[in-house]
Design brief:
3-stranded mixed beta sheet; alpha/beta; 19% strand
Length: 365
């Protein structure tokens, strides 16, 4: 699959509760720090009503949604970059994910311990952000020592690398994440990738609120929303307790519960979709009577790369892609009708797949 979102935050903010609801995994979620030590991993279907529509039109026997992987990473604390609270181990888990879902406690409850004694979303975000930046600074400084030694020979490559690393060091020292770092040098992104920096990863904030504050929010949510806006980050507001209850109900019971709560869909659907967007992902479909399936690719993927998601032979022997836009498929009611109306296009190797494309790949190996 290759698309992983890591769920991070301070202890006792609701990470494991939300993960439980996402995966219905019923993992441990107790009221004390470091309940989660080893990261729990869950494979979650991405809700997409288009799959249901296409499967119904094709009278398909099996429908298979696309999926995302969520990793519940143990709560970080101040000093994690120096090993506090098993911090080095937890930071290593973050390095293995593609994007970060940062759960922030935005509810008051005297019965649930807060590691710092009171609820303050901006302080909590700063604690996590600072620890990630400090860990990145350590990585940059180690690389800088090595690059400076290599640059003593006058090698232009290493001289340029030292310049970029020094700029990056200054950027991080100012409390800014690596994802906002930009230089004129062409190699800056290469260095960020090679260093496996934590703060280069895209971030989605999740405000965990009490169910009574889900509709209108509260002052904590407002403060977090302003921060997310300033960082050009996304924010999703959910009530973890509600989502966990929903995850334990049947489909029919879920619909009744949602109606009672004046909700159109579970908040976790919004979270999954936001995580999907955060990673720059889109969906294409293969449609047939035997199976209708959704497939995940990164935005900008060309037709042979999309074919390779199905099987490497499809990519290796790619001839062409026969494509029907989702809206055209639905309007026509079937692949045959779309072909008869000239709405099935034959696309070559340079075609960039669009979200919602229904594709039949032609190949020869």
């Amino acid at each position: 699959m290759g698309f992983r979102c890591g769920i991070v935050g301070l202890p006792n903010v609701g990470k494991s509760t939300i993960f439980n609801a996402l995966t219905a995994a019923a993992i441990q979620a107790e009221n004390y720090p470091f309940c989660t030590i080893e990261p729990n991993v869950g494979i979650v279907p991405v809700p997409d009503e288009r799959l249901d529509v296409l499967a119904a039109l094709a009278r398909t026997k099996v429908k298979v949604p696309t999926q995302m992987e969520f990793v519940d990473i143990a709560g970080l604390v101040k000093g994690a970059s120096k090993g506090e609270g098993l911090g080095n181990q937890f930071l290593g888990h973050i390095r293995q994910v593609d994007a970060i879902i940062h759960v922030v406690r935005c509810f008051e409850d005297d019965n649930i311990i807060h590691v710092d004694g009171n609820v303050d979303p901006l302080r909590d975000v700063e604690v996590i952000s600072t620890e990630l930046i400090l860990a990145d600074l350590e990585s940059v400084e180690k690389r800088l020592v090595k690059s400076r030694n290599q640059a003593k020979s006058g090698n232009k490559h290493f001289l340029a690398e030292v310049q970029v690393l020094e700029q990056l060091q200054t950027h991080l020292n100012a409390g800014r994440p690596a994802r906002t770092f930009v230089t004129d040098a062409g190699q800056d992104r290469r260095i960020l990738v090679e260093l496996s920096l934590l703060t280069v990863k895209a971030v989605l904030y999740v405000a965990n609120v009490h169910e009574s504050e889900l509709a209108k929010g509260n002052a904590h949510v407002d403060a977090l929303s302003q921060l997310a806006t300033a960082e050009e980050a996304q924010l999703v507001c959910i009530a973890g307790a509600i989502e966990q209850e929903l995850s334990q109900l049947s489909v029919e019971e879920q619909q009744e519960y949602l109606q009672e709560m004046n909700m159109t869909e579970p908040g976790l659907n919004r979270l999954i979709k936001a995580g999907y967007d955060l990673l720059g992902l889109i969906t294409f479909f293969t449609v047939g009577e035997r199976e209708t399936r959704a497939w995940t690719i990164t935005r900008g993927t060309k037709a042979p790369g999309a074919a390779g998601k199905i099987h490497s032979d499809f990519e290796r022997g790619f001839i062409r892609a026969e494509v029907i836009a989702y809206a055209d498929y639905v309007a026509c009611g079937s692949e045959a009708a779309a072909r008869d109306k000239g709405l099935m296009r034959s696309e070559g190797k340079e075609y960039v797949v669009c979200d919602g494309d229904c594709i039949l790949f032609r190949f020869n190996v």
